[in-house]
Design goal:
Layout (H helix, E strand, L loop, with lengths): L2 H12 L4 H4 L24 H23 L1 H19 L15 H24 L2 H13 L6 H18 L6 H10 L6 H29 L7 H34 L2
Helix pairs in contact: 1-5, 1-10, 3-6, 3-10, 4-5, 4-10, 5-8, 5-9, 5-10, 6-7, 7-9
């Protein structure tokens, strides 16, 4: 494997906001398991709250199923993105395809950061393929009659806003950044730094909000929902598996395109 590919792929797979590292597709946190309800909690739940929770869980299950069944659509979007990058800047990193001993620490750092940019770009594109599924899920959550559960409405609204903020983000200027990195590998391209900071902050907020949502749903669980919770856990595992495989393959293809003229 060429030096640039080694650095870029290693960085992509280690990027904190990348799906592979988190075991889930970017900000969607679909690989998360629902927290278990406290043993004494179920008895205190009202019938209305239980019904509300069950509807939300079925909506979440449908969302996960849409991601699993729609993986090929996301993969097609990744393929199209790779083709677009290849047509614009194929071989942009060729000047950096050098033996390891010829790359100093600054150049290695630049490659690492560009690798994070590639990983986040691919994660973002993969997630955005499921924007229609997320829109359906968010509408179902918001239409539920939360009634006096003001905190529940707040959690749902914050979750939807945070997720949507990520899913409508523009991709990075990868071609320009890769070309600039190859021209002056001693400096990380400014646009790369800006994109990673913006995307990282948005993802961190979205992850917090989805954790709040899952805790909310978990707080209303009952024993009757055990099979549904198990099914959700199975779907979440499938989402994590297909995401990791897809992004790893896409990362290899994209770095290959950038290092070969």
């Amino acid at each position: 494997m060429k030096q640039v590919t080694a650095f870029v792929l290693a960085a992509m797979l280690a990027a904190p906001s990348a799906a592979v590292a988190a075991g889930r597709p970017g900000p969607l946190a679909l690989g998360e398991q629902l927290p278990a309800a406290r043993p004494t909690q179920a008895a205190a739940l009202t019938l209305a709250a239980v019904r509300l929770d069950r509807r939300a869980l079925y909506a979440y299950s449908a969302y996960l199923s849409a991601v699993v069944t729609g993986a090929s659509t996301a993969q097609a979007a990744e393929t199209a993105y790779i083709a677009s990058v290849s047509s614009q800047c194929r071989g942009a990193l060729v000047p950096l395809t050098l033996p390891a001993e010829t790359l100093d620490s600054a150049a290695r750092h630049t490659l690492t950061v560009v690798g994070q940019e590639i990983g986040d770009d691919l994660s973002l594109g993969f997630d955005q393929a499921f924007l229609p599924a997320f829109t359906r899920f968010s509408l179902q959550l918001r239409r539920l009659q939360w009634g006096r559960l003001t905190i529940a409405r707040l959690i749902v609204n914050r979750y939807v806003a945070a997720e949507r903020r990520v899913l409508v983000m523009a991709p990075s200027t990868l071609c320009q950044d890769a070309e600039l990195a190859a021209t002056d590998p001693q400096l990380v391209p400014p646009a790369t730094t800006s994109f990673l900071k913006l995307y990282g902050r948005a993802v961190a907020t979205a992850n917090l909000r989805v954790a709040d949502l899952l805790r909310l749903l978990g707080s209303y669980q009952t024993a009757d929902e055990k099979s549904l919770i198990t099914h959700i856990g199975t779907l979440a595992g499938q989402v994590a598996t297909v995401t990791k495989a897809s992004l790893t393959a896409a990362g290899s293809q994209l770095t290959g395109a950038l290092e070969k003229s």
